[in-house]
Amino acid sequence: MKNNSNDYVIRMLASPLDIEAASWNALLAAQSPGEGLNPFMRHEYLAALHESACASPATGWTPRFVTLWQGETLAGACPVYLKTHSYGEYVFDHAWANAYRQHGLPYYPKALVAVPFTPVPGARLLARNAAERALLVKALVAWCEQEKLSSLHLLFAADTDVSACEEAGLMLRHTVQFHWTNTAPAFRDFDDFLMSLSQEKRKKIRQERRKVQEAGVTFRWSLGRDISTADWDFFYRCYERTYLEHGNAPYLSRDFFERMATTMPENWLLFIAERGGQPVAASLIGVSASLSSSADPIKTAYGRYWGALERVDCLHFEACYYQPLAWCIEHGFQRFEGGAQGEHKMARALLPVKTTSAHWLAHPAFADAVERFLEREGAGIDNYLGDLAQRSPFKVHTVSAAPTPPLSQPSFQRNPS
Q1: Per 3-state DSSP, what percentage of the chain is helix, strand, and coil (rounded to 5)?
Q2: 77-101 burial, b if ≥16 CB within 10 A, otherwise e?
Q3: Rounded to whole angstroms, how far apart are CA atoms 126 and 75?
Q4: Domains in the chain, ordered, with CATH?
Q5: pTM
Q6: Tens digits of per-residue pLDDT, 289-339?
Q7: Residue 63: in which H helix or E strand, if any?
Q8: Is residue 411 over pLDDT 70?
Q9: Which residues fall within 8 angstroms of residue 46, CB to CB, at 6 or more apart?
């Protein structure tokens, strides 16, 4: 696919291995401050998903990488997957798929620009400037039309991506995540952090931590290459068991995590819970930079995976929130992202943050119906955020407003033709 503007050429590739890692990572590093150190868009991460077959046609993720070339220079790129289902995305469109099915129309395959199984906001359209980012969006829509796909979805996008998509006419959708921040004046230690909370929340956290301590559980952590193979193996046992207990196979394989340990170890922090000298649980955290790095303006940790072999009251909160937050404070990390959903995270001082996705639907009638739904849903999200803002866990806050009613599902009343 050729674009006449400045002799740009679009090439669709079937694998991240068809793109030089250094060129991809250089584009990632050129994004807005902080985006370049988001580990989940690194070439190594996407390649590990591909080579381990976690994101593959067999699992419903057929990769297609859009690349923008100016001569021999990679000017832009983004990951896009042909999806035969809507699992592993964290922005739910099941109602849209059901509406298509009820009208006898195919919703799958659809096109998805996202990091598989990873609800971490960040740059998706890697480009050197706004004009080249706009070309990527144009190429994505043109490719979807050419392949006669029902829709295109760009998830957990950076602000620059959102601007490019909105300018191209895509519809925007908002969801809510919960993030913790440690900005100036930074907390001195975990107790200093607790003192910033209301008495009720501070008391609750201390009670939860005490339950874990009284159960005889202690923690140790390892970062990067200090994580041993035995610890990786134990973590995977915990991670796999958690999925199986919920009746599902895990999205990620042991082979994937082996590749993480080999190709990007500096981006992983592992907490191991022990009782009586034996490991009983594990929590794996992504990190944006090494402890010695000064390149990241906002050092960020990402709550990702956890599992336990024994049931201990409040162990999940300790492993997934309190231990990571204490570590972030001690090591100068300014942000901890708690992942998708979870209003309960507010009680642990993770505050609501709006995230954005962008959507294009080929069928005009369905596009109109979804646009109307998104207007109603967007108003509901704004009301929800306003309600949450009045329930701050910190000392200075206002009285909570009445709960916001649940958001409605889209209404597809127009008969598509």
Answers
A1: 40, 25, 35
A2: bbbbbbbeebebbbbebeebbebbe
A3: 8
A4: 2-177+354-389 (3.40.630.30), 183-333 (3.40.630.30)
A5: 0.91
A6: 766 666 667 899 999 999 999 999 999 999 999 999 999 999 999 999 998
A7: strand 61-70
A8: no
A9: 16, 79, 115
